[in-house]
Amino acid sequence: MLNEKTVTELNVYKLRLKKGSKWTIDARPVGIQNVKFGRYVEKADALKAMIELCRAFNGHGKIQTAKKTKVKTLGQAMDDYLSVQETKMTESYYRAQKFNLGLLKAAKFKNIKCGYWNIATLASKSEREDFRQFVEDLILNEGRSIETMFTRRKHMTKFFEAAAKKGWVDANPISDIKLPKKKPTDDRAPKVQQDFVAWLQTDGLDAYGAAYSKAAEKVLATGRKKYRKRNHLTITPRRLEIMMLLSMTTGIRQGELRALRRCDYLVNQQKIITRQAVKHGTKDFGDIKTMEGQDREIEVPFEVCKMLTDYLQDSKFQEYDDLIFPSTTGTPLRKNDFCEAVKPIREACPFKDKDTGLPLHFKWGDLRHAFASVMINELGANWIDVSESMGHTNPEFTKRQYGHYIEDEEKSKRKRDAAGAVLVNRKGR
Known about the structure:
There is one protein chain. This protein has helices at residues 43-56, 74-85, 91-106, 119-122, 125-142, 146-166, 194-222, 225-229, 237-250, 254-258, 302-313, 335-348, 365-379, 383-390, 395-428; strands spanning 11-16, 21-26, 36-40, 108-109, 112-113, 265-266, 271-274, 277-278, 285-286, 296-299. The protein has three domains: 4-56, no CATH class; 74-166, no CATH class; 194-377, hpI Integrase, Chain A. A hairpin with a 4-residue loop joins strand 1 and strand 2. The radius of gyration is 29 Å and the shape is elongated. It is mainly alpha-helical.
C-alpha cells in the first residue's frame, strides 16, 4: 500500500501537446499501471494530485478513481461542473451559481450561443480578449447594481477557475474583467421619507391596482394556463394594501410576514406573534432571524386589525394553522411575488433620494425602516424598547443602524437654533 512518503518516488513532468503543455504524473517507478495520470496547468496542482493518487492506490497496480468526463462545449462543461458542485454547496448558493452561469450559457457571442462554443476555443489566445470584453459587457448590462455585477463575476470566475484546474482551458479567460468600484459599506439603515410613505398608501397602491387590472385583462383575453398555474395574480390590490400596512405598522420582516398563520393573529388582543419565518430563497419554514425576535408579540393598530379580520373572513383557507397570506395552493408566497408587486409602484414613484438625487427604488424592507423611524420619533433614544420592537439582537445594533435618525434631527435643530440666534441679534440692532 502506498503512503504519502512514497510520493517522492513519483515523477512529475511536462507533457508536450499540440497547443501548449500540461503537467502530468509518471507512476511507473512505483508499479502503478496508469503511466500518465492527469493533465494539470500548474505544477502545484499535479503535486497535490500525487498525494491523492497514493491514497487511492489499492496496492495491486490499479487506481480507484472515476473516469474523467470529456467535455467539448461550454454548455457541457457547465453541466459537468454544476453536477459536482450541487453536493458541495447550499441549495441557495447552487441556484445562484446555476442562474448566473445560465446567463452566460444563453448569451450570444459572435451570433452563437456561448453554450455551443468549444470551451477551449473561447479561452484560446485568438478569442480570449474578445470573449473577455463580451463577458464584461454582459455583466455590466445584466447587473442591476454594483453588488449584482460582482456576484455575476464571482460565479463565472469560479467556474472558469475550476475548468482551468480540470484542464478544459489553459487559463481563466475572464480573470481581468473590470467593474465599477464598490462604495464603502454603510452600516446604517436607509432613511425613509415620510412623504414617500404617504405616497405609497395612495398613489403607489393606485399604480399597482392599474397594473394588476391590466394583467388580469390579459389573462382573461388570452386564456393562457401558465398564468393560472403560477401565482401571477395572487397578490390582489386589497391583499397588498393590508400587507404593506401591517409591515409599516409592526416592522415585521418579509420572511416573517410570509410565514404568518391564522393562529399567530390574536384578534381580541390586537396582536400578532412571530413564531417562524420563510427561509431566504425557499418555501421552507425556519426560525426567526434572531433569538430576540422569536415569539415576539407585536401590537397592531385598530384600523389594520379591522382590515385584516375582514380579509381573513373572505379567505378560502379557514383552518387554524393556515397561512394568512398564502399562494393559491396554500403554500408560502414566493419572494418573486413581492418583486412583481413592487415593480409597478417603483416605476410610478416620483420621489428622488435627498442625498444622491437618484430615483427612489422602493423595496419591501423600506416599510420596516419606516416603522423604525416612527418608533424612534415616539420613543426617542430609548434603544432597549426600539430594539425589542424590531426584534434585534441587542440595543447597540439598533443604535448603530438607526442612531443617525436622532443625530441628524439634533443637527437640524442646532442649525435652526443658530439661524434663529442670528435673526434675534439682527433685531436687537
